Amino acid sequence: MIVTLTANPSLDRTVTLTELLRRGQVHRAASVTSHPGGKGVNVARVVSEGGAPVLAVLPGAEDDPVVHGLRTAGIEFRTVPVAGGPRVNLTIAETDGTTTKINEPGYPLDARSLAEITALLVELASGAEWIVLSGSLPPGVPVDWYARLVATLSLLPNGTRRTRVAVDTSDAPLLALFAESVGPVPDLVKPNSDELAQLTGLDPVDLENPMAAAEAAASLIDRGVGAVLATLGAAGAVLVTADDAWFAAAPPIVPRSTVGAGDSALAGYLLADLAGASLADRLRTAVAYGSAATALPGTGLPGPADILLEAVTAHPLTANRPQAPA
Questions:
Q1: Model confidence over 164-204: pLDDT tens digits?
Q2: Helix crossing, 111-125 with 145-154: angle to 10°?
Q3: I need a surface site. Which of 121, 172, 259, 293 has the fewest CB within 10 A?
Q4: Three-point CA angle 115, 118, 124, nearest 5°
Q5: Are residues 301 and 46 in contact, defined by beta-carbon separation less than 8 angstroms?
């Protein structure tokens, strides 16, 4: 079982244009689609389509459109009731594959809701191989909440392991994971090049180079993370652990939308991990899923039929993982 948390769920609406976007001009839409969203919901959708058991946890009312979408898709979920509705995230998709996103802030969560979500995750942790904490935090949530959840979910009070925790977030919640005052760090983090730059102080452009990205990821391993899956957009991805570093280039595709690509890559990694795959094959599967998402229009997410695993090859970067930069 994989459990995903989406603290800031959304209704993802995609407007596909018939031409390139021109600011200040009137445009015609070729299509408009809506899907239940938020990064954890996206991971759950891909994992479910991949045939693995998954349960999505989110705040939401019984009649809100995200809950309705999960129910319609047949994805198991548990909700913590809240009075407000989900945010609407708008994606504008152009004919050349460029996507522009406009994300609403989301419905605020109070201390009671956070306590209920935490208690629910603790309840589910005993039956979960992974708990995935994904996406932004809504208004009113302390920036270190993910960090505190990692500490709570990783270990039982007696110090024994409860479950493995993966985190995919950015900005202040990401930086808080590595604050000196926090306890356990995640078993897996999935930054993109911008987020890896936030953690290391390096230039995102430099981190598009796989070796540079692997060296930056190695600095997070030195801070206790079990594995770093760093997605590098069209360049592919690197996977770094305490013993190894691997790189896999993205297969040639026609990009149509980057929405959900990182979430799909994380889901691919988790599916391969559940199947007992090697590090190299976990990376290959992650890159295959992320690339497949990029080749789909709008907010479409890939299933097994969309994956071209044979087109992705993983290469060791060194005999051992690269040393972190000074």
A1: 999 999 999 999 999 865 678 899 999 999 999 999 999 99
A2: 30
A3: 172
A4: 140
A5: yes
Q: What is the largest CA-CA distance in the chain?
A: 62
pLDDT, position 298: 67
230-262 burial, b at 16+ Cβ within 10 Å, e below that, comes to bbbbebbbbbbbeebbbbbbbbebebbbbbbbb
What pLDDT shows up at residue 60? 92
Catalytic residue numbers? 263
Query: Distance between CA atoms of 187 and 34, rounded to whole angstroms?
Result: 33
Could you give the CA distance from residue 137 to residue 134 in angstroms, rounded to a whole number?
A: 9
pLDDT digits (tens, 9 = 90+) for 287-325: 999 999 988 876 679 999 999 999 999 999 974 455 444
Structure tokens at 94: 């152009």
β-strand pairing of 130-134 with 245-248: unpaired
DSSP line for 87-106: EEEEEEE-TTS-EEEEE---
Share of the chain above pLDDT 90, in %: 71
Predicted pLDDT of residue 265? 97
- Own/partner pairs for 274-281, CB < 8 Å, 24+ apart? 274/2, 274/52, 274/129, 279/239, 279/241, 279/244, 279/246, 280/246, 280/248, 280/314, 280/316, 281/314
Least confident among 13-22, 59-68, 248-257: 248-257
Whole-number Å distance between alpha carbons of 128 and 69:
23
Pairing of the two strands 2-6 and 54-59: parallel
- Closest alpha carbon to 270 in 59, 49, 11, 12: 49
Q: How far apart are CA 301 and CA 260, in angstroms?
A: 7
**Tokens linked to 187:** 């078993």
pLDDT of 99 reads 82
Please count the other Cβ atoms lying within 10 Å of the Cβ belonging to residue 283. Answer: 30
- pLDDT class of 157 with cuts at 50, 70, 90: low
Dig out the tokens for 7 from the structure. Answer: 């603290």
Distance CA 12, CA 63 (A): 17
